[in-house]
Amino acid sequence: MVILPELITIAVVALFTLAEFLHARRVTRLARLAFGFGGRARAWTSAAFPLRVTAAGLVAWGLASLYFEEPKVFKTREAQPNQQRHVIIVWDVSPSMKLDDAGSDGKMKRSKRAAELMRSFFQRVPMEMVRLSVVATYTEAKPVVVDTRDVAVVQNILDDLPLSHAFPSGKTNLFSGIEEAARIAAPWERESTTLLVLSDGDTVPPSGMPRLPISIKEVVLAGVGDPRTGKFINGHQSRQEAAALRQVAVRLRGVYHDGNTHQLPTDLLRSLVALPEQSVFQRFTRREYALAALGMGAIIFAILPWSLLAFGSGWRPGVRFKQTEIVQTNIVAS
User: Fold this and answer.
1) What region, left, alpha or beta, does residue 235 occupy, with left being phi > 0 and alpha being psi -120 to 50 degrees?
2) For residue range 122-167, what is the model confidence (pLDDT) as tens digits?
3) What is the share, in percent, of the chain residues with pLDDT greater than 70?
4) Nearest to 297 by CA among 65, 21, 33
5) Residue 2 — very low, low, confident or very high, per pLDDT cuts 50/70/90?
6) In 3D, which of 157, 146, 199 has the Cα closest to residue 175?
7) What is the pLDDT of residues 313-333, one digit of tens each?
8) Where are the alpha helices (DSSP H) in the chain?
9) How far is C-alpha 199 from the chain's CA centre?
């Protein structure tokens, strides 16, 4: 079907070229009657031949393309393969995330506060353009779900699902989660992925920073838990290690956000899921080009006849009287 508009256009252009050629021969025979004793129109009128043929081709291609083009249905926007944005959530499921010192009142579980941050994220981001992955991390890392569009599934995972039981006890290895996220994102398109790490930063190793693939464009480390006075767990005082999380963010060329009492900023969310800017012509489809061609052809057909009549020739047939001659004629007649 795609080639039919082009075939129709070629046929119309051929017919118009033949018609214009026959018309030019007829005009040549009647040149003195049409343009006076010189027998020639103004020089610019030679462009009328190609303009009419071009206009016919534009109108034919535009109408044929619109006829064979699939109707444009306005529905929920779906991301094209080259427009998909991936978001990988590295979810800290260590026991310290169950401590209740988060939120504005300091009585919310850290995991609940992290889930609130993500709930706000889902509400303020065009999720039809996003694919979600969740990597649970504690002593090691395990992918829970990879590249899903189902926000409800992800929300269910974040709402206090006891994932810590899937890991052996020990110290939190946050870098293992980042390494697993890097492995998942490696085959994806360049700068198509956002990495969100939600943790209290209770135990962050001083070395062993993972190397991120070029598919990861943005990295955000959101800390939860009271950064000043913590809770006692496993023989040590646990609180949000804001300094450690900020250092990790710097080493990953990302940003740190204190999510204990503040949601993720809207400007930050816009930058995380922003699609690559496209020029106007890159956003045009065949339908838009067909409409443009149809409009240009119609404008040429509308303006050209009037221009030929008004400015095509200096010859004006008929007898002209000067004003003095008209006055003298009136006097004689009286």
Assistant:
1) left
2) 888 877 788 999 999 988 999 999 988 888 888 888 887 788 888 8
3) 81
4) 65
5) low
6) 199
7) 877 666 555 555 555 555 555
8) 4-29, 31-35, 48-68, 110-124, 151-158, 174-185, 242-251, 266-272, 280-283, 286-311, 323-333
9) 31
Distance spanning both ends of the chain, measured CA to CA: 77
Per-residue model confidence as pLDDT tens digits over 230-284: 666 666 667 677 888 888 888 888 888 888 888 888 777 776 666 455 555 666 7
Distances 236 to 42, 112, 172, 184, 200 between C-alpha atoms, Å: 96, 22, 13, 34, 14
User: Residues 166-177: what's their mean pLDDT?
Assistant: 85
Residue of 233, 240, 220, 197 lying closest to 103 (CA atoms) = 240
Residue 255 identity (one-letter amino acid): V
Tokens of 79: 């991301």
- Residue 242 structure tokens: 């804001």
pLDDT of residue 149: 87
d(CA 165, CA 161): 10
Tell me if the pTM is above 0.70: no
Name 138's bridge partners: none
Beta strands at 236-238 and 193-199: parallel, antiparallel or unpaired: unpaired
Under a CB-based contact definition with an 8 Å cutoff, are residues 144 and 155 in contact?
A: no
Nearest to 260 by CA among 236, 244, 233, 242: 242
Q: Is the distance from CB of 53 to CB of 16 less than 8 angstroms?
A: yes
If we measure between CA atoms, which residue out of 151, 149, 136, 152 comes closest to residue 197? 136
DSSP code string of 106-172 = S-B-HHHHHHHHHHHHHHHS-GGGEEEEEEEESSSEEEEEEEE--HHHHHHHHTT--GGGGS-SS--
Describe the strand order of the beta sheet including 141-148 as a list of residue ranges: 141-148, 130-137, 85-92, 193-199, 216-223, 255-258
Which residue type is seen at 209? M
